[in-house]
Amino acid sequence: MDTFGNAMLGVVFLFLSLVSTLLMYKLWGYPFDHEKLKSTAPPRLMLLHRTIGYLYAAIYLYMMSQMIPRLWTYEVELPARTVAHLVLGMAIGVILIAKVAIVRFFKHLESTLVPFLGTGLMICTFLLIGLSVPFALKEIYLHKNAVGGTAFSQENIERVKTLLPKAGFPPEAPLNNLTTVRSLKEGRDILLSKCVQCHDLRTVLIKPRTPDTWVQTVSRMGERSVFNPISEEEQWQVATYLIAISPDLQKTFKQKRQQDIETLKSKTAADALVNPEMLELAAMKSFDLPAARQTFESTCTQCHGLKNVERTPPTTVKEAGELVARMVSNGLRASGQDLEQVVFYLAKTYVK
């Protein structure tokens, strides 16, 4: 099943969990005969609850059958979100086993433990789907709209046609067919459905590569696909699609590199401001106070309100510098001069 299909199945999985839990709360309200170990709830409601439980368990087993092989063949260290996803999936399995064991073999515990286990299942399911479905849908949207629009333009297709003969495709590869819009879209769909079995898309699309490198990389990964093999033709389609979106990847890569450079400059400037001598110089510089205030407001309101500073203002020049350095470490990007103006304003306004 492709990424969109799995996302929709996850939504159904969450819906079944919610309905099952609400129904369980209703059934919990009926008296429980502790001698016969049987609830007095209507049989139809009991049957409905059991049927929903079977469907929930079936979807869980199906999703685990997809998750475990993917984790087994994962090529890099698991991202934090994937680890959380795995832990929640395992927790659901443990709770399901405990719940089934109590209902089948330890019925004297049913009236006290099963409702709490059912609530635990709902919470774990909500977290599991919340950590996966929104991101999956976002990935699909971005790659089918933002990236796809550029990749499928006639100008870009002509560019790809000139690159494929030198990209290292085997002689039998139908290069003309690979550069059609339909084939490029199929390559995109294969990337989103099969390649993510072993990779997070961030590791695949982290930076652009040359056409021959894309072909070699896809071929190498195709040889390692075991549980859901990628055919040779599919490898050609994926490689062609990756070649087609390389300009977009290059643009994104340059933007990120520029952001990293700006962040490094801000951190360097902030580290310098922690130096006592630099702090005194910044506080003593003859900046225009209204202009410094404007810089302070425009810089600091990027992440929080000004009342945060007013509630706990710095009392020394050193505290002002440490405050600015802490903001930079939290993600603030600003020039060294702007940071000096912020320290100047804080010193003139709050330091007595």
Please explain how this structure is put together.
It is a single chain. This protein has 352 residues and is mostly helical. The protein has three domains: 3-131; 137-251, no CATH class; 274-350, Cytochrome Bc1 Complex, Chain D, domain 2 (Orthogonal Bundle), CATH 1.10.760. The protein has 16 helices and two strands. It has a two-stranded antiparallel ribbon. Helix 15 crosses helix 16 (336-350). The longest helix has 42 residues, at 232-273. The radius of gyration is 29 Å and the shape is flat. The mean pLDDT is 78.
| Mass-distribution shape | flat
Helix content: over 70%
* N-to-C SSE string, H for helix and E for strand: HEEHHHHHHHHHHHHHHH
N-to-C CA distance = 66 Å
Total beta-strand segments: 2
Strand % is under 5%
Strand order of the largest sheet: 1-2
Number of domains: 3
Structural class: mainly alpha
Low-pLDDT stretches: none
Please state the average pLDDT score. Answer: 78
Brief synopsis:
The protein is mostly helical and 352 residues long. Helix content is 75%, strand content 1%. It folds into 3 domains: 3-131; 137-251, no CATH class; 274-350, Cytochrome c-like domain (Cytochrome Bc1 Complex, Chain D, domain 2, Orthogonal Bundle), CATH 1.10.760.10.
